[in-house]
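A reminder from the course coordinator: this example appears on the midterm review sheet, so study it carefully.

Given structure:
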């Protein structure tokens, strides 16, 4: 396992001050190790889980040639006629989905057939009901291309073909595909365990009596909500006071149980920001000032399960530490800023991709939804040198073009504007002011 110092050294131009989003992402990608541990779960419980191995199809899907239409099935070879002349066939039986028709047809004969019914041997073409004229026990219709309205055995998946890949995150479509293969259980990686706590003496838990200077904890709900959307197991450690002993106990408990620890608050250098100094003495931690708005201060590191306080250490330590507890790898720590919008932005921009990697997702299933390219409905002041995430509402104009306007005040404590937003404008580090009508990138929210 590389130390933080080794990771830092492998990234050209890395410095913890004014760190670009791309350099921070690269650092986190080097830190995030996929979980090991495989379990077999029933398909009902598999939504959002990550496949532990490739799934090879045990059967062909569909298992037999079948009809794509309700109509009449016939052998195109036995009905070759001058191509423009109508085809005239005698209907001698019918076959429903789920039935196997055993008889034999003569030239000039056909069978009534329903969508999904297996095509009896030798029949290769289906004419839909609405294309025929009934004449007693005969039908006539304009000639069709041989093979029309036939679904071939194995056209979805051939037996022995890879149906799904290791690291795929199981979507509703993937669950359907597994079921179509007859698989009732599936091997998945164990769930990533993520511990979370809010910090700050001014933070009230719900149900506590309001007091002067205090605010209710919102980060606990935004962050654990984002975690639940990822499908990880959340260990909620509540609110921890700015008290070194309590912070140490919370970190200790989190490091023993979790693969990753998320905290909010105490990342800047305020008088009561004990979280920052406590993290620095307990683990291998780096403190960043990100070139980002909002969400500048962030801590990243590792916490061993057998936390021991370092003595005489500096807070910004990247020194190698030894981990004596070999039964559990250290937890990856993400210390997030306290401001309610900042914590969500840093989660979406940096923590989420790292957690997906830790969950064992492959590149395809951890890729973020592509940024939308839309036009700005307003001019926006933007200083080059940092990536800015602005809350916006994307709307479709009468001509079908997409436009985005800001939700109003962009203060990093204002959750109401986060609720209104359906996307985050992502203004790249080098970008300057945006003029009305310029194309900007938007990260869709709640997608
Ligand atoms: N002198 C400086 N001051 C600040 C700097 C700086 O660089 N120099 N950075 C600012 C930025 S940017 C941010 S972001 C904040 C981050 O500070 P902390 O991580 O220490 O966060 P706190 O001070 O604990 O809280 C900030 C703000 O958010 C409220 N908060 C915190 N936790 C919660 C919660 N769980 N639920 C609801 N609201 C929460 C807290 O009450 C504060 O209002 O620092 C700036 N200052
Ligand atoms: O960047 Mo801080 O996150 O302003 O709120």
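Designed residues:
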């Amino acid at each position: 396992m590389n130390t933080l110092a080794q990771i830092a050294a492998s990234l050209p131009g890395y410095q913890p001050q004014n760190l670009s989003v791309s350099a921070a992402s690269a650092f986190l990608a080097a830190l995030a190790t996929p979980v090991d541990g495989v379990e077999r779960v029933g398909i009902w419980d598999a939504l959002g889980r990550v496949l532990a191995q490739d799934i090879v199809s045990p059967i062909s899907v569909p298992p037999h040639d079948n009809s794509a239409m309700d109509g009449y099935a016939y052998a195109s070879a036995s009905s070759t006629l001058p191509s423009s002349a109508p085809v005239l066939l005698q209907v001698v039986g019918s076959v429903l989905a789920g039935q196997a028709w055993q008889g034999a047809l003569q030239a000039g004969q056909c069978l009534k057939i329903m969508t999904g019914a297996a095509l009896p041997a030798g029949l290769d073409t289906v004419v839909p009901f609405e294309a025929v004229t009934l004449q007693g026990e005969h039908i006539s219709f304009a000639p069709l291309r041989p093979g029309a309205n036939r679904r071939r055995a194995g056209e979805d998946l051939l037996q022995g073909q890879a149906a799904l890949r290791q690291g795929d995150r199981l979507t509703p479509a993937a669950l359907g595909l597994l079921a179509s293969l007859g698989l009732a259980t599936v091997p998945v990686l164990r769930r990533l365990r993520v511990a979370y706590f809010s910090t700050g003496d001014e933070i009230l838990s719900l149900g506590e009596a309001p007091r002067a200077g205090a605010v209710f904890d919102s980060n606990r709900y935004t962050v654990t909500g984002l975690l639940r959307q990822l499908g990880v197991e959340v260990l909620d450690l509540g609110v921890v006071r700015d008290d070194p002993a309590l912070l140490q106990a919370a970190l200790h408990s989190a490091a023993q149980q979790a693969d990753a620890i998320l905290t909010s608050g105490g990342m800047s250098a305020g008088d009561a920001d004990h979280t920052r100094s406590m993290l620095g003495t307990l683990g291998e931690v780096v403190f960043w000032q990100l070139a980002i708005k909002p969400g500048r201060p962030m801590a990243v590191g590792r916490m061993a399960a057998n936390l021991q306080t370092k003595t005489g250490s500096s807070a910004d330590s990247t020194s190698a530490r030894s981990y004596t507890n070999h039964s559990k790898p250290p937890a990856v720590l993400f210390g997030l800023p306290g401001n309610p919008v900042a914590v969500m932005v840093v989660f979406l921009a940096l923590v989420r991709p790292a957690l997906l990697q830790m969950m064992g997702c492959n590149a395809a299933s951890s890729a973020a939804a592509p940024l939308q390219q839309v036009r700005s409905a307003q001019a926006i002041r933007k200083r080059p040198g940092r990536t800015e995430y602005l809350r916006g509402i994307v709307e479709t104009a009468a001509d079908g073009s997409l436009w985005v306007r800001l939700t109003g005040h962009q203060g990093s404590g204002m959750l109401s504007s986060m609720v209104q937003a359906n996307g985050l404008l992502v203004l790249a580090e080098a970008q300057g002011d945006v003029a009305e009508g310029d194309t900007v990138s938007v990260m869709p929210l709640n997608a």
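The mean pLDDT is 92. The radius of gyration is 30 Å.
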